[in-house]
Design a protein that fits this description.
Elements: H1 8-19, H2 23-36, E1 41-47, E2 53-58, H3 65-71, H4 97-104, E3 106-112, E4 119-125, E5 128-129, E6 133-135, E7 140-146, H5 162-179, E8 184-189, E9 192-197, H6 204-208, E10 216-223, E11 226-233, E12 238-239, E13 245-249, E14 252-254, H7 257-266, E15 276-277, E16 279-285, E17 290-291, E18 302-303, H8 306-323, H9 330-341, E19 368-369, H10 379-385, E20 411-416, E21 420-424, E22 428-433, H11 434-453, E23 457-467, H12 470-477, H13 480-485, E24 489-493, E25 497-504, H14 512-525, H15 532-546, H16 557-569, E26 583-587, H17 588-594
Parallel strand pairs: 1-8, 13-16
Antiparallel strand pairs: 1-2, 2-7, 3-4, 3-7, 4-5, 4-6, 8-9, 10-11, 11-16, 12-15, 13-14, 17-18, 19-20, 20-21, 21-22, 22-26, 23-25, 24-25
Helix pairs in contact: 1-4, 2-5, 7-8, 10-16, 11-15, 11-16, 12-14, 14-15
Length: 598
């Protein structure tokens, strides 16, 4: 077959495959056009998720007749006035959206400018364009898209249910509404209103949830031509997916791999790999420093100095997290209150015998540890060895009278189920997960030791041999040099095992088999794009977890208070390395509500 030029209609249909993936994609392009037209009010109507109708009406500056005719031609645009691709200050500019939509649907555009006496209407059906004709319409533009993909019916097979398609549209509009708070947005699904945002309203509670701001910390940093602002959730307020992350570059919603990876790195010390923070971040940068023309749907961008952007973003997030180092999610407190209010599940009655003098049945109450119990063997010395260094944001408390008012986390009163420490402050009850709390303390101690002079190691009297699956074995042996930097000296032992010869002195007598198996699994799943220092921190997190005070370990009151004081003096002690809260604080007035006192 000889080489030939493609038919213009076919070219537009191919372009539509990139630009117009689904109804939400067309809506995004059209709403961005309305925003660029300086609209202050944008109304969207869809039917069947946008399959049969998309109508977008704005009050922007509109188009003259000649502009309207050119707008549906490929690569015709008014958004690059100086023909400089690196000085883009608008949202839509590729010049493909309108002709691509018109190639696969029945498109009608009606528009009028303030200087025109009448509006003009133009239609495009399956790529065939009509002449512009006079019409009745107010100031602005209305775009109607009917029977999307009627000219390419094969594409219809890839659309989901109307409900699913509508959810994609809601997500797109939420992102645009968050980036442009001065514009009114409304979305109707037939006669049902789906969303409505007034101008100059705080949209974060509506979009990210009412409890987000209570569990978020502000972000603000400027460096060179880059400014980062917004809000990010504290680590204990997280999700199982990353869909609640809203990232913007110069007012443009993006789903960029560089930015997403930077967020993961910033939260690396605080969240497990399958948990994600909630955030709304705005990056403002000189347009000359960013290329926004690298993706057909304009979802990704390319930075001239990617290293600067990555470094500033990570620094900004870590600084914000450090300022909120000891906060724990308020949702945890609410969950605890709800749990207390939930009717208890029926428990079997204890079997008892009456001796005539005293009840001799076995108690079913939780096991508590109170003052006067002996210290767990060797734990007092272990706790003392992990004393955190003072920091400006969290100084170690000076010796003061032993009252609950003296300390943010109060004084320990008991231990329940060998796992949770009950502490009392002047106005709250604090419940601490001893394993999660100590895991954070050990991790921060190991990080400081590594940064200062390297982690001290000790030779094992009897080297430990651990059998491993083939893939896990490869992952371990490929990282022996990095592990050695952390004090863990490992070498191959035969074809299916490794031998642990030396280990960090901080680990003491660890369960080497379990530790190596967990470490191998983590190394297999580790993000290879992380820097060496970031990878080392992930490994340190696994090591710290294995040397923490385990659930079920009985502690004395002195040990509990030592743990509380170290938490108060250690950064990021509000959560463990995996994003779980280390404590829950129940205010006194909430407790009183449980008992009908308020």
């Amino acid at each position: 077959m000889s080489v030939r030029f493609l038919d213009p209609t076919l070219i537009n249909q191919i372009a539509a495959g990139e630009v117009v993936e689904r109804p939400a994609s067309a809506i995004k392009e059209l709403v961005e056009n309305a925003i660029d037209a300086k609209s202050t009010k944008i109304d969207i109507i869809v039917r069947e998720g946008g399959r049969t109708l998309i109508s977008i009406t704005d009050n922007g500056h509109g188009m003259h007749r000649d502009d309207l005719t050119l707008a549906v031609e490929r690569h015709a645009t008014s958004k690059i006035p100086d023909s400089d691709l690196f000085n883009i200050r608008t949202l839509g500019f590729r010049g493909e959206a309108l002709p691509s939509i018109g190639a696969v649907s029945r498109l009608a555009i009606t528009s009028r400018t303030a200087s025109d006496d009448t509006a003009w209407r133009l239609t495009v059906e399956g790529g065939a364009k009509s002449e512009a004709a006079p019409a009745s319409f107010g100031l602005g533009t209305r775009v109607e898209v009917r029977d999307l993909f009627y000219a390419t019916p094969a594409r219809l097979k890839f659309l989901k249910t109307p409900t699913t398609e509508l959810s994609h549209t809601v997500d797109i509009l939420n992102r645009l509404a968050l980036a442009h708070p001065t514009i009114q947005f409304s979305l109707m699904d037939g006669d049902r209103q789906v969303l409505a945002y007034g101008a100059n309203k705080d949209r974060i509670p509506s979009i990210l949830g009412k409890d987000f701001l209570e569990n978020a910390c502000p972000v603000r940093m400027e460096r060179e031509s880059l400014r980062v602002s917004g809000h990010i959730s504290i680590p204990t307020f997280n999700r199982s997916h990353a869909t609640a992350q809203y990232l913007f570059v110069n007012g443009r919603p993006v789903k960029d791999r560089l930015l997403s990876a930077s967020v993961r790195v910033a939260y690396q010390d605080f969240l497990a790999s399958n948990r994600h923070p909630v955030l709304a971040l705005f990056l403002d940068i000189d347009p000359a420093e960013v290329d926004i023309n690298v993706h057909p749907a304009k979802a990704e961008v390319r930075f001239r100095d990617a290293g600067l952007v990555r470094g500033v973003l990570i620094s900004a997030l870590k600084q914000a997290l450090q300022e909120a180092a000891h906060r724990s999610s308020s949702a945890m407190t609410q969950n605890a209150i709800v749990a207390f209010q939930r009717p208890p599940s029926p428990a079997p009655s204890p079997v008892s015998t009456w001796s005539g003098k005293a009840y001799s049945g076995r108690s079913t109450s939780p096991r508590l540890s109170f003052p006067g119990q002996p210290l767990a063997p060797g734990l007092a010395e272990t706790m003392a060895s992990y004393q955190a260094a003072p920091t400006p944001s969290a100084p170690i408390p000076e010796p003061m009278p032993e009252t609950s008012e003296d300390y943010p986390l109060g004084l320990a009163r008991a231990q329940i189920h060998g796992t949770y420490i009950l502490a009392e402050t002047s106005d709250s009850l604090v419940i601490v997960d001893q394993h999660a709390a100590h895991e954070r303390l050990v991790y921060e101690k190991m990080k400081r030791e590594q940064a200062a002079h390297g982690i001290k190691r000790q030779a094992l009297l009897l080297p430990e041999v651990v059998d491993l699956p083939e893939e896990t074995l490869k992952a371990i042996l490929s990282r022996t040099s990095e592990l050695a930097q952390l004090g863990l000296v490992i070498e191959a032992f035969g074809l299916t095992a490794v031998m642990v010869r030396e280990a960090p002195a901080l680990l003491g007598k660890a369960d080497w088999k379990q530790l190596i198996q967990d470490l191998g699994a983590d190394l297999q799943d580790m993000d290879t794009t992380l820097s060496l220092s970031e990878q080392l921190n992930e490994i340190l997190g696994t090591l710290a977890c294995h040397n923490s005070v385990r659930a079920g370990r009985q502690l004395s009151i002195e040990e509990m208070n030592a743990l509380l004081r170290q938490m108060e003096a250690t950064p990021y002690s509000g959560q463990c390395n995996h994003g779980r809260p280390t404590y829950v604080k129940l205010p006194r007035h909430d407790i009183e509500k449980l008992f009908g006192r308020r």
